[in-house]
Amino acid sequence: MLFGKKPGYDPDYDLKLEESLAENKYPAEKMAAARAAEHTSLCAQVCTPEVWDKYKDVVSSGPAKWTLARAINTGVMYPDSFVGCHAGDRESYDDFKDFFYPVIEKYHTGFSMKEGSPPQGTPSERMDPARITVDLSDSAKGKIASTRIRIARNLSMFPLNPGGSRESREQVAGLMAKVYARIPADSDLAGEFFLHTDISEAKRQELIDDHFLFRGKDRMQAASGYHQYWPHGRGVYLNRAKTFINWVNEGDHLRIISMEMGGDVKAVFERLSAGAKVIEEGV
Q1: In a domain, 216, yes or no
Q2: In what helix (H) or strand (E) does residue 193 lie, and over which residues does it extend?
Q3: Do 249 and 235 meet the contact criterion of CB atoms below 8 Å apart?
Q4: Is residue 144 included in any domain, yes or no?
């Protein structure tokens, strides 16, 4: 079963390197056109011929063995993208720092990769709901139809998904299955993990129709490598109330989502924080 992917080459799912990049050559004409256009991706702004020459033969020191050609493929193929580049592993950011650092600084205006902003405490400690000292008024809550808060997490022991393999994706999913299985049955977070490759077509369509299950199918993400080996290792975790949802290997390793009808933003964040802590401790 391909679960939405067309047989053979499907640009919505399959990775294909742009012709010049496939030969490890700088796509000079396309990059010049991108820089002359009304919109220029961050990738095209930063990846000058000088940057390319510095890194064209470099391979990342991490498990993805990433290259600059792979990093910029999305931006070259789709110049209307905003960022247009991807890292294949955490080491890529430093191994190609004269490319990735400026991209990050352009995206996060005012942030300095040299000075940094060292985080204090663990991720779950930084998401402590007790740090929120104000509440929305009843009037404000009454104006909110629904509330949804989400965070993304990637696991340091695996390559990032653009540089991942079928095996690494399945290992992420297998690890998360064990984490979910250890959530106490009486917890509000307890629920069921559905893998794309294990569920029936009827259940899959039900989850998609209810907007709980992702379908992939994105050309820009496909050009990065996000959708390689589709649908293996992909799935969704739902608690019983369907207010705590995890997307596994949709793009990042984890998209952790808390949502409910109404405007109780603090309650939604408290659930998100509790779920993130369970995952952090379980991993």
Answers
A1: no
A2: strand 191-195
A3: yes
A4: yes
Instruction: Work out the widest C-alpha separation in the chain, in whole angstroms.
Output: 60
Q: Compute the Cα dihedral for 76, 82, 86, 91 and give only its sign.
A: positive
Domain boundary among 81, 107, 133: 107
Quick one: 180 and 273 in the same domain?
Answer: yes
User: Where in the sequence is the domain holding 167, given as residue range(s)?
Assistant: 123-197+232-282
Q: pLDDT digits over 157-199, tens only?
A: 999 999 999 999 999 999 999 999 999 999 999 999 999 999 8
| Torsion 114-128-148-278 (CA) sign | positive
Q: Is residue 226 part of a domain?
A: no
Cα–Cα dist 274/283, whole Å: 14
> 256 - beta bridge partners?
151, 246
Per-residue tokens: 248: 């596994």
Beta-strand relationship, 191-195 and 244-248: unpaired
Q: Is 8 left (phi over 0), alpha (psi -120 to 50) or beta?
A: left
**Bridge partners (DSSP) listed for residue 258:** 149, 244
221-256 pLDDT tens trace: 999 999 999 999 999 999 999 999 999 999 999 999
Alpha helix (H) ranges present in 97-218?
A: 97-107, 123-126, 138-142, 166-181, 201-209
What mean pLDDT is predicted for residues 146-151? 97
Beta bridge partners of 194: 236
| Two structure tokens written together for 75 | 């931006």
Distance (Å, whole) CA 210 – CA 29: 44
Is the pTM for the entire model greater than 0.90?
A: yes
Task: Please give the DSSP secondary-structure letter assigned to residue 162.
Answer: G
Beta strands at 254-261 and 244-248: parallel, antiparallel or unpaired: antiparallel
Q: What is the distance between the alpha carbons of residues 176 and 275, in angstroms, rounded to a whole number?
A: 13
Q: Is 55 part of any domain?
A: yes
